[in-house]
Specification:
With 799 residues, the chain is mostly beta strands. The protein is 5% helix and 53% strand. The strands form 10 sheets. The protein has a 24-stranded antiparallel β-sheet that branches. A 5-stranded mixed β-sheet has the order 5-10-11-8-9. A 3-stranded mixed β-sheet has the order 16-15-20, with no helix packed on it. Strand 12 and strand 13 form a beta hairpin. The longest helix is centred in the middle third of the chain and has 13 residues. It is globular.
């Protein structure tokens, strides 16, 4: 039988109904806390017995806290932070743990497969979420230098026909329409050796942004550098509602084939598609339409949900990904052999209005000249233009692993890992992708600011093309790894781990258009190879059956690579990129094409304790991290960026988590994280990062607390109430201009859920972001570039 849940909504609160015959219901609270089993060390162990700093959220906590997205669970993890640091929306988010921030610093896994940390799988039909703090380079490889996030899904089983269905409806503050969705999972044994599990969902969230544009396109010519905000604001405008409507759907289908008591094979296919009819970005600043001399940005708080623009240029984001995998497991008496084969495919297609940026940077500078080369006024009115970006990634991963079950004091986890990643970042994927009709006016160049015969060259094939690029990358990563543990005594255990790796990167492509100075430039294919060894050493001491202390030192690393060329040279520099490179000490744009791996050492001591007959657990760790040759993302004001190794940083901090069953009816949890991430060696590439400066995008403090109270009622009915709070401290961002860091304010999020459970149904009233906080989740680095004076800020969903 199925479990059913229906939800009705009012004023941002969701009400739900659930039914579940033959689906196991959560048991009434017992005296002890529920035991959570994790596989962080590639073997099944209880959370309290693993000598690592881990936050684990089981399926019960996921439901009680109404967790459905990354944003919902990220705030439940001490010393985890995230920010929008890349181009666009779909691939912009990066995750940091313990102050180790930037692209590729945190591993992200779905079951056995590493996936990009920017994806946001719907939290659906999960056994648990595991967040491992500290470098996990031995068992999880590159890009797990700060830590690893793991989503562990439910697997097919032979326990019988079972399933559940949830139906939800709600209203978001400021949105024109309602939100609604449905999800479900169904497990079915087909016979005594085969079972299938199907999961699916569909969700539609109404847009809470509005796009306001000039009603008369000719009014754009009245926007000038000397106009006051009041003068600009007096121009008639038209407003489009429901911007940023988000529709998503997806699911998975998995099969369990048990060929013998020892051998099982589990093929699985997952897919998800998300579409938005606008970019969910709030504007910073306080004036209606940008000018060539905009006022400075006073703060980085979102300025509401109205997007002010010259024209009605729709924006959009489409993110589609699929993951196919096959797991093979053979259980012998002496150990388990595991094979995991997977293929991940993702395409992100986004369109953004670039009218304002082009007008400020390519058109407005010429408006001061009374005549262009043909003797007529040049572009007094901004030209309507959008830019379209297509990003693709294809990744094949194969891993073979052996996990011992030996008798005696010695145990081993060892394996072979190989991944092959192909990526494409073609702005010209839908050729041409960035065109401003009429911007060239002549066949060969944009006219100069005054007199003379030299202007900015254009692409002779497409004179009005602003930007075109098709750049492809291949990365292959073979590795051998192992962790060997030895029980010196029944209480004392030592562990040593090594991972030997090789990373080979090959890149090449072309770039063209006005931004690059005219005709196509070919970046020839280049390759780079790095080899290394990643060590780990740990010891643990069990004080008694419930308490332990541990210490470890581990090295984490992130691979190097190659990036596209920066536009501009000594003779043609349309956007000023080359001049900006020269200020940083570069004499050629070719010097920015390659970067090497960076690495860190993490030194850590921790304790795990259980008290009062396991009614209270208290886990904590203190750490010191030394990070060298940091891969800095050098974001130039002209809108282009490159990556380089420069500078060093240290992080000192601690995290503490508490879980308690205060009474049979009341369960509480709390966590706090402190990470003092500071620059210890300055970087000439980012002058604002001086010794003692904060590492970008990392708050000093994070915290969370929750309480669940269960009221038993007659006939096995119960009332369950949960309240949750999480806090993220302020942080510094330099996503757009490294010379002018910005402060991201701190924020707190409050959620609550009340559920009435009767038989196989429950009705839930859910409120998210009850204080209606507009949190700054990062100042977005636009596909084109930021229009001066108007940051675009990634924000959370309103109440």
């Amino acid at each position: 039988m199925m479990k059913r849940q229906g939800i009705l909504g009012l004023a941002g609160l969701a009400i739900g109904v659930t039914s579940a015959a033959q689906t196991p219901q959560p048991a009434a609270p017992t005296a002890a806390l529920d035991e959570i089993v994790v596989t962080a060390q590639r073997r099944s162990e209880t959370l309290q017995s693993v000598p690592l700093s881990i936050t684990a959220l089981g399926s019960g906590a996921i439901e009680q806290k109404a967790i459905t997205t990354f944003f919902d669970y990220a705030g439940q993890v001490p010393n985890l932070a995230f920010a929008a640091t890349g181009d666009g929306v779909g691939t912009a988010r990066t995750v940091s743990i313990r102050g180790i921030a930037g692209d590729g610093t945190t591993g992200f896994y779905i079951d056995e497969t590493p996936v990009p940390d920017s994806i946001d799988p719907r939290v659906l039909d999960l056994q648990r979420i595991e967040v491992l703090r500290g470098p996990q380079g031995t068992l999880y490889g590159a890009r797990s230098m700060g830590g690893t996030v793991r989503l562990i899904t439910e697997q097919p089983n032979f326990s019988g026909e079972s399933g559940h269905v949830h139906v939800n409806g709600s209203k978001t503050s400021g949105a024109d329409g309602a939100n609604f969705g449905i999800d479900g999972a169904f497990n079915l044994p087909l016979n005594d050796w085969m079972a299938i599990r199907a999961v699916g969902f569909a969700q539609r969230d109404s847009g809470y942004f509005k796009r306001r544009f000039l009603t008369n396109a000719s009014d754009a010519s009245k926007v000038c550098a000397t106009c006051s905000p009041a003068q600009i604001g007096s121009l008639p405008t038209t407003t489009v509602n429901n911007v940023g409507e988000h529709t998503s759907y997806g699911g998975s289908l998995s099969l369990l084939m048990k060929f013998s008591d020892a051998l099982t094979v589990t093929p699985k296919f997952m897919a998800q598609k998300s579409t938005m009819n606008g970019l969910p970005l709030a504007d910073g600043g306080s004036y209606p339409v940008p000018t060539t001399s905009p006022p400075p940005v006073a703060n980085m708080r979102p300025a509401g949900f109205v997007q002010q623009r010259f024209f009605d240029v729709p924006e959009s984001s489409n993110d589609t990904w699929a993951l196919a995998s096959v797991g093979v497991k053979y259980d012998a008496s002496y150990g388990t052999f595991t094979s995991s084969t997977s293929y991940f495919d993702r395409t992100v297609d986004e369109t953004e209005d670039q009218t304002d940026f082009l007008w400020q940077n390519l058109e407005a500078p010429f408006d001061g000249a009374p005549l262009d080369m043909t003797g007529t006024p040049y572009h007094a009115t901004p030209l309507r233009s959008s830019i379209r970006e297509l990003k693709q990634i294809h990744r094949f991963v194969q891993e073979f692993r052996f996990t011992s079950k030996w008798e005696g004091p010695t145990q081993l986890v060892t394996g072979f890992f190989y991944s092959d990643t192909r990526g494409r970042v073609p702005y010209a994927g839908y050729y041409p992708a960035s065109v401003a009709p009429g911007i060239s006016q002549t066949g060969g160049f944009i006219p100069p600011t005054s007199g003379g015969a030299v202007g900015i060259p254009v692409n002779p094939l497409i004179p009005d093309e602003i930007f075109g690029q098709d750049y492809q990358t291949k990365v292959s990563e073979p590795a051998l790894y192992g962790e060997l543990s030895y029980e010196v005594t029944q209480a004392l255990k030592a562990t040593v781990g090594l991972r030997g790796y090789q990373v080979k990167t090959t890149t090449g492509g072309y770039l063209e258009g006005i931004a690059f100075g005219g005709a196509r430039i070919t970046d020839p294919s280049q390759s780079s190879t790095e080899n290394g060894v990643n060590p780990k050493l740990g010891i643990e001491y069990k004080i008694d059956g419930n308490d332990m202390v541990y210490a470890q030192m581990a090295r984490g690393f992130r691979p190097g690579g190659l990036v596209p060329s920066i536009p501009g040279n000594t003779t043609v520099d349309p956007l000023g990129c080359f001049a900006q490179l020269q200020k940083l000490g570069y004499t050629s744009a070719a010097q920015t094409k390659s970067y090497k791996s960076d690495h860190l050492w993490n030194y850590e001591v921790g304790a795990k304790t259980s008290m009062l007959d396991n009614r209270l657990t208290l886990d904590g760790a203190a750490f010191y991290v030394k990070w060298d040759q940091i891969q800095q993302s050098v974001n130039l004001p002209c809108g282009f960026q490159f990556r380089a190794n420069s500078g060093a940083a240290t992080t000192k901090g601690a995290e503490l988590e508490m879980h308690a069953r205060a009474t049979d009816e009341l369960e509480v949890s709390a966590g706090v994280g402190y990470q003092r991430a500071r620059i210890s060696e300055s970087s000439p590439l980012i002058p604002a990062l001086t010794v003692g400066s904060r590492v970008y995008q990392t708050p000093d403090w994070t915290g969370n607390a929750s309480a669940t109270y269960t009221v038993p009622l007659a006939d096995s009915r119960r009332l369950q109430m949960t309240a949750a709070w999480n806090y993220t401290g302020d942080s510094v961002s330099a996503t757009v201009d490294p010379a002018k860091p910005r402060l991201r304010p701190s924020y707190s999020i409050y959620d609550a859920r009340i559920a009435y459970v009767f038989g196989s149904y429950d009705v839930a009233l859910v409120g998210k972001n009850l204080a209606n906080i507009e949190a700054n989740l990062g100042d977005n680095r636009s596909l084109a570039a930021e229009a001066a004076g108007r940051p675009r800020i990634v924000v959370n969903q309103p109440r």
